[in-house]
Amino acid sequence: MNSPVKNDRAEWLQGPSADGSVQCSAVPAEHKNPWRLILLGAPGVGKGTQAELLTGRLGACHLSTGDVFRAAKERRDCDQSPAMKAAMEYMRRGELVPDSTVWEMVRERSHCLLNCGGFILDGFPRTLGQAVSLRDLMEKEKLSLSAVVNYELPVEEIVQRLSGRRTCEKCKSVFHVTERPPKVEAVCDRCGGRLFQREDDRPESITVRLEAYERSTSPLIQFYKNLGLLMPIAAKGSPEEILARTMEKLDKLAAGAA
Ligand code: AP5
Q1: What is the pTM assigned to this prediction?
Q2: Residue 62 Cβ contacting ligand 1 at under 6 Å
């Protein structure tokens, strides 16, 4: 007898089950013109927050490689591959996980990229190597990117956002102690899970992450600019204001494409 299918995003983030009995609860509905977006920007600029809001508006699949790695960390020690254990260490220090491990995780979830409702990639690609792997896969599948949204914010505000961030241990929703506080302290508004502070939001890891961003990820700005896909957005103001700015540009893009 087949085991019943369980729609559980937190469990699904830990990896596809061999029998397909666990699926993401947020599978998007099919769209005629699905959005296929990459969110770029320094750590803490608000990519995850915007990805959640955009997912609500656009109905696309939200894939965050950071969430996938954090979910893998919650697996029992014996269920973690050596590559995954090494990835945890890179993350803890604020360094980038090697491209081969990242690509393996993304490939395992390639139905997020290939589904007919579109996708919003948050934290991936993060190196030129990852961008090339993604481009090759999309070319093979005859899919094209709609846009690459690049969120821009001064570094002092980034550090302030990172140091006040709190994340739900169950559904991964993101809050901020002063800017986006939960209704009940330390409890997730969405699922009632416990909110915690990420290990890599300590000051020493923040510095390493910002350096890794400058060195490895910021070259992607030019890469996507050359492809005519870059959409710069000021990440100042409230999440809703930034969402409105993003939607305005996406609507213009859609109108131009129609
Ligand atoms: P990842 O989880 O992707 O972290 P990141 O890119 O460093 O981005 P963050 O999640 O820190 O920030 P965000 O931009 O999403 O901001 P958020 O919305 O949370 O990656 C973590 C690690 O995993 C990496 O360091 C690396 O080791 C590894 N990794 C992952 N992907 C990888 C890859 N592809 N290759 C190699 N390694 C990889 O917002 C931040 C805070 O600000 C929150 O508290 C939020 O509530 C608040 N906030 C958001 N918007 C606003 C606003 N408008 N005003 C005020 N506060 C706001």
Answers
A1: 0.88
A2: no
DSSP single-letter state for residue 217? I
Which one from 70, 165, 166, 172 is the annotated catalytic residue?
165
The encoded tokens of residue 73 equal: 């960390």
Query: Kind and range of the H or E element at 122?
Result: strand 119-122
* Per-residue pLDDT tens digits of the chain, which is 258 residues long: 444 445 555 665 666 555 555 455 566 677 778 999 999 999 999 999 999 999 999 988 899 999 888 888 777 766 777 888 889 899 989 999 999 999 998 988 888 888 778 999 999 999 999 999 999 999 999 999 999 999 999 999 999 999 999 999 888 888 999 989 999 999 999 999 999 999 899 888 999 999 999 999 999 999 999 999 999 999 999 999 999 999 999 999 999 876
- Give catalytic status of residue 165 as yes or no: yes
Is the distance from the beta carbon of residue 126 to the nearest atom of ligand 1 less than 6 Å? yes
202 counts as catalytic: no
Counting every residue written for the chain, the total comes to 258
